[in-house]
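Please, structure for the following, as tokens.
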Amino acid sequence: MAPHAAVLLTLLALALAAPLAARAADTHLHFFLHDQVSGSNPTAVQIIKGPGSTSSAIPGIAFGDTTVIDDALTETPSATSAAVGRAQGYYMMSSQSGAVLMMCVNLLLTAGDYNGSTLAVIGRDDIMATTRELSVVGGTGKFRMATGYVLWRTNSSSGPDVTAELDVYVAALNGTSTIAADAPVSPIDGGAGAGTDGGASGKSSSGAAALRGARPYGWANAVVAAVLVALAGCVW
């Protein structure tokens, strides 16, 4: 291989890899979820009963059963340990041949550096498996545009009540990416909310921020890659 070709191919690799630097290093979060179905103040309430619900020994585990949740997240398996957030969303029995849930949950964090930030989690939860993997498909606040996964394990159960252990591995945009000046600002980031005088003096906390330099493969990178490949072919 000619020396010039080796240099150009190195530049090509750097050009393709550079946008990935806009991603922060993985963040690992660890906490416990308490799904309380029984008692006078349940955090999980069945809202839809599937056709086989009447023959099910445990509520909520017949095909089609759907349960809405506002489960506590705590530091340890004890429900009385320090609270770190809430798991809000729903799960439904989505398999006709086994105890498999489709989970759709927002993890709202309420303590520490991530107070007010959320993670959107969705995926298949085979409750009989020791470890299940669910996807992190987004987030807000410190976890805006997050991606990653959750390792979900059953820690203990008592009848329909379950304590689950969650290991969350997530990467989000870091400070090297910039946001357009006219993009909505979230109060979680210290931005001003709506004006207190009833006007619209602040940015809305909802809406899509226009990110610059954060896409793994933008048109500029494609052009650079094409030019470098062409040059490499000429001197090969």
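DSSP finds two helices and eleven strands in the chain. The CA atoms of residues 55 and 62 lie 8 Å apart.
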